[in-house]
From TrEMBL:
Residues 9-100 form the Roadblock/LAMTOR2 domain. This is Roadblock/LC7 domain-containing protein. InterPro entries: Mycobact_SerProt_Inhib_Rv3364c, Roadblock/LAMTOR2_dom. Gene3D superfamilies: Dynein light chain 2a, cytoplasmic (3.30.450.30). It comes from Streptomyces marokkonensis. It comes from the Bacteria. Pfam families: Robl_LC7.
Length: 135
């Protein structure tokens, strides 16, 4: 059920256990590589991570159209038939993504994700990469 580098297990499990309806949690780099996951299929987590790279880029581009925005994406929420998708900035070049069913209340999830990021954000970082190599 858990696949990470060990240091993320308690962090992600705490979120998973604290909010009903979570199907999968993925920690990813800005370029769409999975850093960690909790629950769900590893291949699905890889697909979610890759899709998130485009989504966070799109959200940042749209946020630049708000005159008072600094262009940084903070959170994206997508409501779908059967559930929700959440994507939140979670540290330098890192993001936290959660898929949930309809039992999950979006306000509670947003607060729970923000709490997790505040507590462990410095640990959820990914070094910048250029041409597949860490910079």
């Amino acid at each position: 059920m858990i696949e990470q580098q060990g240091k993320f297990d308690w962090m992600l499990q705490d979120l998973y256990d604290g909010v009903p309806g979570i199907e999968m949690i993925v920690v990813l780099s800005a370029d769409g590589l999975r850093i960690a996951r909790y629950s769900g299929d590893p291949d699905a987590a890889d697909r979610v991570a890759a899709a998130c790279a485009g989504l966070q880029s799109l959200a940042s581009a749209v946020s630049q159209e708000i005159p008072t925005s600094d262009g940084a994406m903070k959170m994206v929420l997508i409501e779908m038939n059967g559930g929700y998708f959440y994507l939140m900035a979670a540290g330098a070049n890192a993001y936290l993504a959660v898929l949930s069913d309809v039992r999950c209340e979006p306000g509670r999830m947003g607060l729970s994700m923000a709490d997790l990021v505040a507590r462990i954000g410095p640990h959820l970082t990914s070094p910048a990469r250029r041409n597949g190599q860490t910079v």
